[in-house]
Write a structure and sequence with these properties.
With about 140 residues, the protein is of the alpha+beta class. The protein has a domain at about 60-130. The protein is built from four helices and three strands, in the order H-H-H-H-E-E-E. A three-stranded antiparallel β-sheet has the order 1-2-3. Strand 1 (about 100-110) and strand 2 (about 115-125) form a beta hairpin. The longest helix is centred in the middle third of the chain and has 29 residues, at about 45-70. The chain is elongated, with a radius of gyration of 32 Å.
């Protein structure tokens, strides 16, 4: 057995227990930082939830604006003051978003200069978001 040097093999040492403990501590610290970044208040999970909420709201606003435009065509406008009819807007929203997905109602509010005005409000039942329309029928 000419090529084997047993002296050299016995001098090489493996990882020591101290080095192993230090490595485990470092891994635990890194895992804690990673979990905190993922789950914390400004973490990836929270940020993605906020982005999803904003995306849903933007989608709803687009669909509501389309339904408003549809409701404004033809004889859907109230002849007296030129505002949208609640019934026609509800019908248009049912066609746009699906039946029973929204609730439309008119509410009297005190506007500028103490004058009572009719405001149309739309509630999207799936998300719970509420939208209000200006007097001219545009989203606020």
């Amino acid at each position: 057995m000419e090529g084997i040097n047993f002296k050299k093999i016995t001098k090489e040492k493996g990882i020591t227990l101290v080095a192993l403990v230090i490595m485990i501590i470092i891994l635990i610290i890194l895992a804690g930082i990673t979990v905190r970044l993922a789950i914390g208040n400004n973490g990836v999970v929270e940020t993605s939830k906020e982005a999803k909420k904003e995306s849903i709201e933007a989608d709803e606003r687009t669909q509501i604006e389309t339904a408003i435009k549809d409701a404004k065509t033809g004889d859907y406008m109230d002849g007296n003051d030129g505002t949208l009819k609640v019934e026609s807007l509800q019908k248009s929203l049912d066609n746009q978003l699906g039946k029973e997905k929204t609730e439309v109602y008119a509410e009297e509010i005190v506007g500028e200069k103490g004058k009572k005005e009719k405001e149309i409000r739309i509630i999207c039942k799936d998300s719970g978001n509420m939208y209000s329309l200006n007097k001219d029928g545009t989203l606020k």
